[in-house]
Amino acid sequence: MLRRLSCCVLLVLPVFQLLAQSCTPPAGGLPGANPADFWRQQRQFPRVRAAEAATGPAVANLLRTHYLDPRRLEIMFRLVKTRVELEVWARNQGGGPFELLHAYPLAATSGSLGPKRRAGDYQVPEGFYEIDRFNPKSNYHLSLGLNYPNAADLALGKPNPGGDIFIHGGEASIGCMPITDAGIEEVYLLAVTARAAGQAVIPVHIFPFPLTEVELAKHATSPHLAFWRGLMPGYAYFEKHHEPAELLQLAAK
After folding, report:
1. Is 7 a catalytic residue?
2. pLDDT-derived band of residue 35, with 50, 70 and 90 as boundaries?
3. Cα(251)–Cα(253) distance, rounded to whole angstroms?
4. Catalytic residue among 168, 219, 241, 242
5. Which of the residues 81, 82, 194, 251 has the least number of beta carbons within 10 Å of its own beta carbon?
6. Range scoring the smallest mean pLDDT among 15-29, 126-140, 236-250
């Protein structure tokens, strides 16, 4: 179980009230930044305010029951395509390994097992990404953008790898990860909370299936086998340590 909060008042105050009252950056926060600034910016948008009013209490309760301090929150996302759900992992800054916070079923899927390599192929990327955009005016309610194509994708030299891959609301997919409007409201608020708490990089790991030797053997004739083996160390590291292995500088081959 995640480390219990040192002050019991954190267990009873709503998460968003805590963020609004915080006046100094938490340890590991953005230098010179007030943690409430990102919330102020996001609250300019009606959908964010509506999501906070409708879903904020549920998100606060989710954090509270996992002993997570919103002022120290760190999160990451993981998708194993065959499980058809977006996993949200969380921890307090400096509080040890990530633990599974919640899994949100995908409302739709597109493409097949394998990485994204060109615009219009309907594929969901596979590999190690991060959130690089918060879109409070999405065509799909709210959305979080991935930094696809990343350096590993661009190194392949494909002429038109595509882009604009999001975790979003709604129930349609052309290469993105829809988790319904209700689901994205919770996930979006969690991501805003983590960013406001100072988390500059929110990782997103995407795999076709559990990358074990047993599962790989089932796909021995796939043209993506070498690529998947390139992802395997990162998958195994997280499975063992519940910690992203970005320092290993893993890249798709």
Report:
1. no
2. low
3. 6
4. 168
5. 82
6. 15-29
